[in-house]
Design a protein that fits this description.
Largest sheet: 5 strands, mixed
Strand order of the largest sheet: 3-2-1-4-7
Helix content: 40-55%
Number of strands: 8
CATH architecture of the largest domain: Alpha-Beta Complex
CATH class of the largest domain: Alpha Beta
CATH superfamily of the largest domain: Spore Coat Polysaccharide Biosynthesis Protein SpsA, Chain A
Distance between the termini: 55 Å
Structural class: alpha/beta
Amino acid sequence: MHFPKVSVLIPCYNAEKYVGETLESVFRQTWPAIEVIVVDDGSTDGSAAVVQSFARPNLRFIQQPNRGSTAARNVCCSLATGDFVQYLDADDLLEPDKVALQMARLGEAPRCIASSEWGRFKRSPAETIFQAQPYWADSDPIDWLVLSGLGTMLTALWLIPMQTVRAVGPWNEGLSLADDAEYFTRVVLASERVLFCPGSRFHYRSGISGSLSGSKSPRALASQFKVLDLCEGYIRAVEDSERVRRVFALNWQHLAHFAYPYDRAIASQALERAHALHPIRIRPDGGMRFRALSRIIGWRAARALQVASGRQ
């Protein structure tokens, strides 16, 4: 019996503590035809030794100077020979039948992509709570993007036909933060439909110190601004509706709240973009003290005081 091959593509940078557990979750997959490609992106810890300890015929390990995760994923893609692609970060975990359950649906729908259930954990995957989300359903591309609010473009969520991967082109190596949102927006839009696979699960590790997702450097904030700008263009070119403009108005405001006061210019531009799209207004998240102070002196001043006191 012929089983289409699935390429599991893993960029790795200083993931010595986690990549072994990640690879174990890959090699426990019940789908029988899997190749694994790991690109070490200039790690300075023991990541290489951990990956090399898993040596087997269906594992390929490449080392390169540090160029960023998008470049590492592009190298993975250039080497992949599978019929389908499973992207995976070096600290996340797949449940054993994650790929098999998605393949069961994609086998009859080669122009679609498959999504899965997911949940967060910090220490042990046993802590993961899988809480149903509005987009945990079969959806047309724009419907899925609106329901998800562009906030859940997690790398391991998807199983993607290789023909779709080739059609959308490479990861944008000019981006550093939120590059997954830009890439997977293109993937979703290039697909006929998003097929949700109940029971197909992965565990998303969070709370890692120094994680890029929490970075508020000028480069990271500029990247997130660029991603939102690109995604808005991609999606509004397909559907320029009230619901789409509302989603982007919310996202621009979230970016403004995230960026202030670290980059006041980006925060200001993001608010301008939001206000031009839709009348919906939101306040930054925060505790009771922050909310009370915001009502008195405004959220910008409250955020500036919050950051000055050492809180992010």
